[in-house]
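Collaborator request, handled under Task 6.
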Amino acid sequence: MNLSYWEIKSWLTNVDFCVVGSGIVGLNCALQLRELYPQAKIIILENGILPQGASTKNAGFACFGSLSEILDDLKTHTEEEVFQLVKKRADGLKLLRKTIGDKALNYQQLGGYELFLEKDEQLFDSCIRNKEQINKLLKPIFKDDVFSLRDNIFKFENINEDYILNQFEGQIDTGNMMEALLKLAQSKGIKILNTVMVESFSEDNNSVKIKTNYFEFSASKLCIATNGFASEILSENVVPARAQVLITKPIKNLHIKGTFHLDKGYFYFRNIDDRILFGGGRHLDFITEETSRFGQTEIIQNKLESILKTTILPEQSFEIEHRWSGIMGIGHQKKAIVKQVSNHVFCGVRLGGMGLAIGSLIGKELADLTT
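Structure tokens returned to the collaborator:
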């Protein structure tokens, strides 16, 4: 890129902090850096026109894990580890709501429901047997029982006639959230450059030299918040995972209200603007979905449409209006990676599909590492 003197001087000279990624983590990192260093020059580099990975593409679930997911986590984590995972998600959602405000988020606590397919009777029975144990485990966080049993009030078909309700689960408007975070960052004098990809970086004693697809410059410290794309510039245990989503056209007299998990949380849907937003199905083809490429596949899209017709909206006609995908960052452990990589480089990545819940907190923790 043929940069002018003014561009170099105003944007790319004497940079104190460069944050890579303008998603939930990156923006919250930059906001916390501004609190810690009021006079610092902070620049965010974003590969996409909009935040590229999952921050503008998620389903808007203000959740911290269905009962079956928490029980599944107990197979590979200790009770204390699972408790801390859920606590961090709950704390992260509180911080997000405090930062943006419920009105701007269009936050609604309509409850979250876990549905069980008829073939999953064993899983349902296991959840019922262990419900009180998990309620006891989580009571110090929520001060009340989280999970309870509910009838099939929404008249879904081909499922067990009972749901498991999470009374504390809510939903937000993802677009509103990201607009508000971007506006807040810019109001604090944080510069955001879009369609700029970091190709590599190297350190000397006092700074980090950053090479992008357009230019090179130096910053005193580099904070990497690219989650699903982290493996492209970092050697950390982060695997990209694509999530496919579709949304219907508005449906007259839509009676479904809330957030819903199905098939151990691999499918999820909600109401939004008189529509059904429906996503998931990664478990149908794990290998193909382990990718940082956006797109849809026939096997998953066909399954999403089939479940809409047979289970969610069996008595209603509907049309699909739009389809998209997002890229998450996962690994063999659910715990996010927040660490100092080297003298002047830090990262906050691998949010495990819980970026909406923990992104604000991970961003804050990432910035705090620089002190």
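The cover message to the collaborator said: "The chain has ten helices and 18 strands. The mean pLDDT is 96. Please let us know whether this matches your experimental observations."
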